[in-house]
Every structure is written in C-alpha cells, then in structure tokens.
Amino acid sequence: MCTLEKRGRVYLLTLTGDGEHRLNPTLLNAIRSALARVRSDSARAGGGSALVTAAEGKYFSNGFDLAWAKSSPANRTTIMTSAFQHVVADLMTLPMPTIAAVTGHASAAGFALALIHDYVVMRRDRGFLYMSELDIEIPIAEFVMALFRSKIADPRVRRDVLLRAPKITAAEAERKGIIERAVGGAAEAVETAVRMGEELAEKNWNGEVYASIRNAAFPEVCRALELAEEGDEETKRLASKL
Q1: What would be one Pfam family of this protein (predicted)?
Q2: pLDDT of res. 173
Q3: 3-class DSSP state for residue 11?
Q4: What is each CA distance from 150 to 4, 147, 154, 222, in whole angstroms?
C-alpha cells in the first residue's frame, strides 16, 4: 500500500503499485501508520526533518474508493471520509515541513491530499489536478472546503477549481499559484521535493513550534478539523517556555 524510507533528513512516503491509489480505509490507515512512525522517529532524532509524499504509477491518487463505498449497504462513505479527515489532521499537525511530489493524476480527495502539504511539486509532462465532485454529483466535506479556501487564496481560481471542475495541468497550476513548482517527469518531481525537504530540514527548526505556527496560519482548516483548541493550548505551552 505504501512504503517509508529515509533519505538523509527527509522521510519519503510512497504510495506503491501501479493502480489509482484510491483512498479507502486500508490505504488511509497505512498512511496514518507511516506518519505515526515519522512522528515518533523524528522525536527521537530531535527534529531537523521533512516529509515528502509521492506515488508510483500513473496516479498520485484518484480520490476516494467509490467502488468500495458502494459495495456494502453500510454508510461506507462516512467511514472513508472520517478516515481521510484523520490523515489530513495528521499532516496538519506533523512537526516538520511537508512536500507533496505529485507524480501523476490527483483527483478529488487525491487533490486535497496533495494540497494539505506545505508545498506541492508536480510533474509537468503528464497528469492533472481535478476536483471531480461536481461531475460525479458528490458534495464536498466541510474540512476539504476549508482546506481549499485556505490554500487557494485567489477566489476566482478557487471558484473555477470547484465550480468548473477543470483538469488542471502542472503548468497551469503553477501559473495560478496552486502549486510551487512544475518540473519534468515523476522522478524529477520526487528529486526536487526531496531536495527542497533537505534544504528545509537543514534549518533545524523546532518541530512543535513549526506545527504550531502552521496551525495558526490556517485557522479555518484547524477549526474544521477540530484542532483549533488543541493548537491554542500547544501555543500557550510553548510560549510558557520562552
């Protein structure tokens, strides 16, 4: 489902296989487990780390596993959304810089998974970002809407992403400020993201402070994830040490 390796100071989390990396509870729990290992290992190492998330194959992630959700009369969509919300919260509170290396198509929740990272690098030669909910007639969860409102500042760009449902190339996404950089192919996207991660990790920032400032920078996302109160308490705790 996913692998975790260490490249210098950078943790590289890779969604494995050549499938669509549909986000069902099995994959989401695997991602959460990997992030927990990153959190634990970096705490023992004393900080100075970064995370890069990438994927193998044609897709970065094609969003929720709708086939899995429809395979049971139980409300599996709610279960899947809740599991994804936990992953988003984990990334929002991870005590280090995070970078998504979008190595293929990123649709719907896959787009949101990339956007929750602090930085996004995307391959230029193929792949697109796509919020498909309008086309497939599925409402967008409030915490995902909060994420898009917070990360895509230009209301016209945000309107078009959500209400026109275009398939956005890397070059267009870079031009519109949705991503940081568009680079050659998948390997270059990963290499660029890892290099960026190394540069950020070398700053040796305090991870708890980094996460606290991230939360303060995106309060609407924290409120939607019910992290605001926790973040406020962490800020107070850290301030008491100064």
Answers
A1: ECH_1
A2: 98
A3: strand
A4: 28, 5, 10, 10
Partners of 3 in the beta sheet?
14
DSSP assignments along 43-69, one per residue: HHHTS--EEEEEESSSEEE--B-HHHH
Residues 84/109, Cβ–Cβ less than 8 Å = yes
Domain boundaries, the chain: 2-201, 207-239
Rounding to the nearest 10 degrees, give the CA dihedral for residues 212, 218, 219, 223. -100
**CA gap 29, 19 in Å, rounded:** 18
- Chain centroid to CA 104: how far? 14
* Range 200-221 average pLDDT: 96
Residue type (1 letter), 131: M
Q: Closest Cα to residue 116, out of 135, 134, 141, 79? A: 141
Look at residue 46 in the predicted model and tell me its pLDDT: 84
Query: 107 - beta bridge partners?
Result: 130
Asked whether the whole model's pTM tops 0.85, one would answer yes
Distances (CA, A) of 20 to 36, 42, 60, 68, 191: 24, 30, 7, 13, 22
Collapsing DSSP to helix, strand or coil, 230 comes out as: helix
| Residues forming beta bridges with residue 130, ordered by sequence position | 107
Class of domain 2-201: alpha beta
